[in-house]
Amino acid sequence: MLAGTLLIVAPASARPQVTATTAMPEQPDATDEGGEIVVTGFRSSQRSATKAKRQSAVILDAVSQDDVGRLPDLNIVEASRRITGVSVVGGADPTKNRDIYQRATIRGLDPKYNLVTIDGIPLASPDWVFRGARLDMLPSSLVSRIEAIKSVTAQYDPHALGGQINIVSKSAFDGRDDRFFVVNANGGYNDTAGKLVRSGGPAIRADATGAMRFGANRDFGIVASVEYQRLPSTARAELPGDSNGAGWSYFTATGARTPFPNRSTGLLMPVRNQDYFFENMRTRLSGNLKLEWRPDDATELSLFGGYYHDKDTETRYEILTLPTGAPTAVTATSGAFAQGDLQQGLTYQPVTRDTWLIDARGRHDFGGGVVLDTTLARSKAEYRELREMIKYDTNPRPGTAQAGFLPAFGYRYTIADGRPRLTLNDTAAASNPDSYRALYFRSINRDLDFTVDFAKVNLGINAAAEDRGFGANMGAAVTRTDLSYDQRYAEYVSANAAGLATIGTMRGILHGKQPPAYLTPAVPYLLIDRQAAWQRFGANRGAFTMSNQIANNAADDFRDLETTKAAYAQALFRADRFDVQAGVRYDATKLVIDTNQAPTIRGATAYEAVRRKTDYDYWLPSALATYQLGDGMRVRAGISKTIGRPDYSQYAARTSFGIGTDGTLTVSTGNPDLKPREAWNYDLSYEWYMPAGMISVAAFAKDIRNEIFTSSQQGPATTFQGVTYQTVFVSTPRNAAGAKVKGLEVGYTMDRIAAVPGLGFNANFTLLDGSYRQPVSAAGIASGLSATRKTSGLIQQPDYIANMTLFYATGPVELRASYNRIGRALQSADGDTPTRDLYQQPRQQVDVQARFTVQEGVELVGQVQNLTKEPFVVRQGPGRAYLNYFFPVGRTLWLGLSWKPKL
């Protein structure tokens, strides 16, 4: 498996956007004397990718499959972390399981602003927060190569501030044989699975891929693949900082909460303490089919279809501890609250994601250097989520979803390594199911439907790799996206005090287990049996009343219809040692946004449908030059302008309201006036190709305008539906004045070391330095802060990325050990104070794999993922001394067979 700095050109059937450049002369292979050597395993992927890199037209890095169609990791997103300059991130929602990586950042730029394509075609995403598709749900059996494109030219969609992730699909014409078939089947054990209520059972990974060329002249081809995964896990997590960092709070000398250190006693105290226990089952099923026709060297036609299904069934158990009033006996590591509230709850949140893709492509060489490429595609994605939430509380207020506070549930706390540990005033009462009464039962449905239609035509003149002199590319593209989001929200609370008594306590609706919690060590989880709880709800329906959720049923819905039309022209010049390509793209976007304006008067039911239209256009120049130094060395320099469109939910002028059980109002609102990010990108690289490896060094800088960030600020007192809330948090996307990021990437690959036959390695290291300026809230300015502040990085930008892979092959045995480390990354920035900025802490992961050839075509494969069981950790506060979130990740062991029959 290859992970390194690769500059790769796809095969003709998969590269409509790549312009060929001057090919470097092949370096002889010292092992090729006396006949052809067939290389297999890890070394085969490394060599094939390095060879392809020599014909690259744009700056990109990649990871490639091996000779039997395997990537080095569980899925595409985990394999992509091996690529130079690429880091990967887990789920953005801390209230959901985040034990797997989901998306990739390129050169420190948030995944929201990096497009995901399959063979250059944009893919609909089952998500309203990210434009790019979730990489973790795409099957590895689809992949010939994963490319991280870093310098886009005029032919590319400009939504590429960091770059683009392009999946090059397999082709029947890739190999030298007419037929190919491989089956990989693996059984696994996740050492966290089955640790809570249900038995997790085995993990399963199985895929099959077949390819065949047929016809009288072998001019037809077909590729088919299918893949299935079953991935169980459990995780016991803690979230003392809350999702916006407000779980740690300062207090004034008079005992009032404040986000501002300069108005406080200078000490942070835990005020929203959440323990989570997750039980998760993921299943994935996918299929791909590609039909190809190449009647001669001048003509290529293909039809591709793919279906990708992902179901994530998750149950989350929760303990929430909240204080009230002023703290006492406060020191830097301890304190107490006289009164508090304690809640135990369950959230059942299954999500189903389905994505379909179909595309037709054609290429014809008319002779005389004139080549026409055409693409027509449609992709569709659906997201269906059910979220059932059941919460019991020690002091619920009848008729509402709010609660009061009692002395029994006040607590003393200590802080060690930034992690609070609470001792309740009455631990016996806190552990007693009869202390809890029903707070609410909720049923929430979220539906997303997303369609992307795409068409592109490119005409190349004297633009092939072997052409010399002047040439050109010109073309046009249209992308139409239609996204609609709908939420249906029902909440039931006790009708009155009599109803609260009728509903009863937690006794009789619990599982037998009572696992311990992190934050409240003496108070265990009381695990609600979902079916028993809903049976009680049905038996006592008259004791409940439905609360007013008009806002959550209408104000959060939206539809975005976006149409982007583009035209481009690119001039080329190639000599034997020098080539340059320079072009310009005109990109025009029109957007229609439909939302509902929510009422703010108590009892109001009338909603006004609101339609807003906006548009923007850009002229986007780019240039890339390459000079061959000789002896396998070359230098490249590029400049380009790109944009990063806001994601769809950021555009929508929607407003959602959330009322916490402690009386906190949370307001999340979109911003239809957002401008796309704009970036000037500067690239310089040096590459040296050796007979058995390569060295590459690349430097880059990006100057970004209109940086987009989500600002979380403490707002003024707000009246919502006739009730005035004093504690208000407002979250909205905004444009910052500007941002910068620069970096250095170094890669070194050797697939053969003379001193140790069979040994090879791949290593890369990336340094990143970025920041942006964001406005401070009015309250922050009033407290004495400056009008803007500089962050310590871009959102999701690590300060470094390191990869190292060692592989060894001798006889029937192949061994691989991979190390990946992603440095500290800013996860979110607060609009009031840096002490609420959230930082993903450095994380490393070690994976090992062994293969043994049992007989020709049959391999036994063993693999261990996350050998050292590294968790995800988020910290905050001065010097990042306080824990925001701790999420453990287990070790997974795999054992399987790979069968590649001789056909």
Description:
By secondary structure, the chain is mainly beta. The protein is 6% helix and 54% strand. The chain is built from eight helices and 49 strands. The strands form eight sheets. It has a 25-stranded antiparallel beta sheet that branches. Strands 1-6-7-4-5 form a five-stranded mixed beta sheet. The two termini are 24 Å apart. 50% of the residues are buried. Residues 1-38 have low confidence and may be disordered.
Number of strands: 49
Shape: globular
Largest sheet: 25 strands, antiparallel
User: Per DSSP, what share of the residues sits in E-state strands of 2 or more residues?
Assistant: over 45%
How helix-rich are the residues, as a percent range?
Answer: under 10%
End-to-end separation: 24 Å
Features of this protein?
903 residues, mainly beta, 25-stranded antiparallel beta sheet, 5-stranded mixed beta sheet, 8 helices, 54% strand, globular
Summarize the structure in short:
With 903 residues, the protein is mostly beta strands.
How are the elements arranged and paired?
Blueprint: H1 41-53, E1 60-64, H2 76-80, E2 86-89, E3 103-106, E4 115-118, E5 121-122, E6 143-149, E7 164-169, E8 179-190, E9 203-214, E10 220-239, E11 248-251, E12 257-258, E13 269-270, E14 273-296, E15 299-324, E16 328-331, E17 334-337, E18 339-348, E19 351-367, E20 370-393, E21 411-416, E22 419-424, H3 427-430, E23 437-461, E24 469-494, H4 497-503, H5 530-539, E25 544-546, H6 550-555, E26 558-574, E27 578-597, E28 608-630, E29 633-644, H7 648-651, E30 655-659, E31 665-669, E32 677-690, E33 693-705, E34 708-715, E35 718-720, E36 723-725, E37 728-735, E38 738-750, E39 759-775, H8 778-782, E40 788-790, E41 800-810, E42 813-822, E43 825-828, E44 838-840, E45 843-855, E46 858-865, E47 872-876, E48 882-887, E49 892-899
Parallel strand pairs: 4-7, 31-37
Antiparallel strand pairs: 1-6, 2-3, 4-5, 6-7, 8-9, 8-49, 9-10, 10-14, 11-12, 11-13, 14-15, 15-18, 15-19, 16-17, 17-21, 18-20, 19-20, 20-23, 21-22, 23-24, 24-25, 24-26, 26-27, 27-28, 28-29, 29-32, 30-31, 32-33, 33-38, 34-37, 35-36, 38-39, 39-40, 39-41, 41-42, 42-45, 43-44, 44-47, 45-46, 46-49, ...
